[in-house]
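Progress note, sequence design subtask.
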């Protein structure tokens, strides 16, 4: 069941979203060759706790870290470790913060030093997919319209759109209804109404969209070793506008 939020609840989620955005702003300056994802995890947890919030992911269904890290062919849910990042890597960091009982969730992809022109284009297209999805998340449209516009744009570049993981409602629970697929047909799915708070998080690959899971039970990768890029914002649909909650 979709839980629609009041203006007060959306304001709290906006506070949580600002904490998440502050984490991303800090990590953008810290990500460089030689740093480890475990170090990024420690930095992020310190920021969240200093702000009086709780890391959303740590302990969620047993996940062992504050952030999810996805390097190169990892799609999502990668566990931070002690392996240094290298020049030319691309890393997605997914961060959630819970404040006053409400979550906000945002993932962002970053270059490590300098990536190839091919990866630069993939990153540009994946980011555009996110913002096209946000743009169509308006009252009177349907959930399927979000996925349809993302899929159409990504596939116009012959990129893959991951099917096995999707966006979701966000609120007092980290994952709520409705599910937000990043593919599909326009005009399908539930109507978008005021008070809807969702995370849109397209995962776009330069190869197959199919996935496999590592032996740790968490880390999802592309089956063909292709690179995956992801951008995610938590948004709120109000009677007047659609608001991005996870930005400064």
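Output:
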């Amino acid at each position: 069941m979709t839980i629609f939020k009041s203006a007060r609840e959306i304001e709290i989620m906006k506070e949580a979203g600002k904490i998440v955005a502050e984490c991303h702003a800090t990590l953008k300056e810290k990500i460089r060759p030689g740093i480890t994802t475990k170090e990024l995890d420690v930095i992020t947890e310190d920021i969240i706790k200093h702000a009086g919030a709780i890391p959303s992911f740590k302990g969620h269904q047993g996940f062992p870290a504050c952030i999810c890290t996805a390097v190169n062919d990892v799609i999502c849910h990668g566990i931070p470790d002690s392996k240094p990042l290298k020049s030319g890597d691309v890393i997605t960091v997914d961060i959630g913060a819970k404040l006053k009982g409400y979550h906000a969730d945002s993932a962002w992809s970053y270059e490590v030093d300098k990536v190839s022109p091919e990866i630069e284009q993939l990153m540009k297209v994946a980011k555009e997919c996110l913002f096209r999805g946000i743009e169509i998340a308006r009252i009177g449209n349907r959930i399927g319209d979000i996925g349809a516009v993302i899929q159409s744009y990504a596939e116009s570049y012959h990129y893959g759109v991951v099917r096995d993981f999707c966006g979701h409602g966000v609120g007092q629970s980290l994952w709520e209804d409705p599910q937000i697929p990043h593919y599909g047909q326009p005009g399908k799915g539930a109507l978008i109404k005021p008070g809807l708070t969702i995370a849109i998080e397209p995962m776009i690959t330069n190869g197959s969209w199919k996935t496999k899971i590592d032996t740790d039970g968490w880390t999802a990768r592309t089956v063909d070793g292709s690179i995956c890029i992801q951008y995610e914002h938590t948004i709120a649909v109000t009677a007047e506008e659609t608001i991005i909650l996870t930005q400064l």
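The helical segments are 7-30, 37-50, 117-136, 143-155. Work on this subtask will continue into the next period as scheduled.
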